[in-house]
Amino acid sequence: MFHELGEKSQAHTFPVFILKASCASKGKMTSMYSSLHDNYVSNKGRRTSCVTLAVVLGCLTVLGVILAIAVLERPAAPKDHETLPQDTEGDNSTHQCSMSLVESIPVHLKYKDNVTFGIPLEQVWEDLISVATKRVEVASFYWTLTGEDINVNTTSDILGKEILKRLEELPSRNVSVRLVSSIPTVKTNSTDLKILKQKGVQVRKVNFGRLTNGVLHSKFWIVDRKHVFIGSANMDWRALTQVKELGVVVYNCSSLANDLHKIFKSYWVMGLSNSSLPQPWPAEYDTDINKQHPLLVEEDNTTTSLYISGSPPSFCPRSRTQDLEAILSSISEAEKFVDVAVMEYFPAIFYEKPPKYWAVIDDAVRTAAFERKVKIRMLISCGRSSNPAMLPFLQSLASMNNPEHHISIQIKLYIIPVGNQSDIPFTRINHNKYMVTDKTAYIGTSNWAGDYFLTTAGVGLVVSKPTSQSARSTKTLWSQLKETFNRDWHSEYAVHLNQCRPNPDCALLR
Question: What parts of the sequence cross the membrane (predicted)?
Fold first, then answer.
């Protein structure tokens, strides 16, 4: 089902660009001509100078032809019927950004009184809508913000309905709203996007099935090109009340927001019906922020670095750190520990028929544990709809655990009790997708299977652990994520893989 396609865009000419190049070349030629003319007339006479000038002008003409050919053969930028806003807002020189962890805890999921949580997801979404003054851009796999969308009558969709209502009101406040979602997507009767279009919201669906044989699985917000949300939550009412989600909100960070917008823009132009993937992506999609050149951020007298990763490779310019590379480098650079919380873990390209073994991340985990004695803890979600095919892979990985030889790989299943919520499909699951090591924090939108990194659109935010002394007493994003993992790891909902018993709420244990 999943194959990576490499459709090439048709070559187009750029007459205005070439004209400017020709004019610039003409100016240089005129200047050189004048200088050479004066020199030769004064030293060798008019006839000698003319002959020499003819030779020089001939060489310059050949050079001009070569430059023109190079310009003509440059791949054309994806065209859009609308004028896209320019990425010039904000002060990109100061990077005084504010970052906070965001969470959604399902109803009836109780923790001990002394634990801490991230900012509630619904609060962050409402805040981003409230502060918007110019534009809101959202990427989501699918949209179901009301219970009626999935034929469920429940009061737990109230928060979703409120978010939908507030999004509807944005155009009346002269706030431009653009939304992208996926083709294909989950099968639903959602009317969200139809309602929003009627209110003046611009909507596009990207046919990833045609472009890459995958889906658009990214989930992020960009507000006024200054504020950003990235996380596991789709635009679904269940993400607010029935599914355990995790993300990060970054306020007042124009550099990061403008960089993420380049990814959004790639989705937007590929949402046109006649779009084709450019090879390579034009320069306007390049980034100056990546693993090699991260963005330095100061917050509460601490300094950290961060960058956004992306997938699939066919949607990334060469300057963009790919999502898989971000994960592999975080694992390979760890010296003490790697903690992972992810919904699905498959060392396979699972959605391709027939499935293929794909051990890239699995090998990195095993290598870290075996060769460098890095302590590995993995918290894998298990719900009623989880795929039992994960179990053998997890058991194989856990079998490497050998304290006598200082090999530590511990795996737990995180199981959310269904209780009286059984009438709501695809819920009561830990949807998190993050990793924290002794060096970095990674928050992504992809499950850990080959398809997500090869054919499916996703993004990740990689943040380094602050090294300053003052960071020890500061609630940095890294420390928040570390604390969140420990909270869940030691909770009653996390069960060691080798101690699991049959559980109707976990498909792996039935």
Answer: 50-72
Distance of alpha carbon 239 from alpha carbon 252, whole angstroms: 25
Rounded Cα gap, residues 229 and 124, in angstroms: 8
478 in Cβ contact with 306 (< 8 Å): no
Supply the DSSP symbol for 185.
Answer: -
Coil/strand/helix, residue 217: coil
Q: Is the pTM value of this prediction over 0.85? A: no
Catalytic residue set: 217, 219, 224, 431
| Residue pointed to by tokens 């500061």 | 474
Rounded Cα distance between 229 and 138, Å, is: 9
Tokens standing for residue 475: 């609630």
Sheet with 440-444, side-by-side order of all strands = 295-299, 302-311, 458-464, 440-444, 433-437, 337-342, 375-382, 409-415, 494-496
Residue closest to 465 by CA, chosen among 445, 442, 433, 490: 442
Q: Is residue 29 domain-resident?
A: no
CB-count exposure of residue 70 (10 Å: 0-12, 13-18, 19+) = exposed
Burial (CB count within 10 angstroms: exposed 0-12, middle 13-18, buried 19+), residue 119? middle
Structural domain harbouring 201:
95-496
Q: Which residues contact 110 (CB under 8 A, 6 or more apart)?
A: none
Cis upstream peptide for 354 (omega within 30°)? yes
Residue 354 lies in a domain: yes
Split into its structural domains, the chain has a count of 1
- How far the first Cα of the chain sits from its last, in Å, is 28
The pair of structure tokens assigned to 172 is 């009346």
Percent of the chain residues past pLDDT 90, beyond the cut: 74
Burial of residue 52 (number of CB atoms within 10 Å: 0-12, 13-18, 19+)? middle
- 435 inside domain: yes
Report DSSP state, residue 85: P
